[in-house]
Q: What sequence folds into this?
């Protein structure tokens, strides 16, 4: 019987949630008031039909309103999840697991898979929505998978990498502390 906890469809750590909330707060408290001042200043330049500054500020206002609306919706639909409450991964890669990967060239990388908005390259934290996390999800040590990763030599290009899972372990205390 699988003792894994199933994450809600939309789940992130407390840290990931706070980061999005901070982005929304910045829009509401800093960006929008600044934009309102820019619109007011641009109005003072005269004829609005040929006023580049006014049009530019109004376009920025529309962008800010759309971003505010999107962030509010995302935050409303997101569940804050405590990854420390997850049982050990039972050897299965997925959210709540630390996965040791071996690439075709022998390079070893350790990733910790968390929620939708969680990522920290220095700690190896990867969002469960990232292609790498999705490629290894449900696999066990010894299994190999192929994942498409961005090609570092060409912007917008992808390369296929063969990856072997060397180990699946519980999240480290450092990653759990980061997620809080």
A:
């Amino acid at each position: 019987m699988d003792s894994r906890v199933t994450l809600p469809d939309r789940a992130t750590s407390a840290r990931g949630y706070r980061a999005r909330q901070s982005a929304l707060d910045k829009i509401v408290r800093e960006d929008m008031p600044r934009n309102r001042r820019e619109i007011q200043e641009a109005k003072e330049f005269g004829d609005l039909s040929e006023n580049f500054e006014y049009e530019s500020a109004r376009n920025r206002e529309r962008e800010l309103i759309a971003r505010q609306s999107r962030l509010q919706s995302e935050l409303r639909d997101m569940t804050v999840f405590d990854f420390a409450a997850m049982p050990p991964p039972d050897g299965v890669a997925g959210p709540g697991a630390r996965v040791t990967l071996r690439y075709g060239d022998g390079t070893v990388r350790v990733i910790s898979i968390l929620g939708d908005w969680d990522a920290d390259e220095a700690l190896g934290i990867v969002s469960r929505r990232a292609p790498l996390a999705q490629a290894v999800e449900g696999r066990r040590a010894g299994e190999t998978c192929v994942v498409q990763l961005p090609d570092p030599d060409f912007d917008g290009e992808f390369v296929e990498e063969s990856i072997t899972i060397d180990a699946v372990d519980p999240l480290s205390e450092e990653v759990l502390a980061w997620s809080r």
User: Anything to note?
Assistant: Helices lie at 14-43, 52-77, 131-136, 173-179. The longest helix spans residues 14-43. Residues 82 and 140 are 23 Å apart (CA to CA).
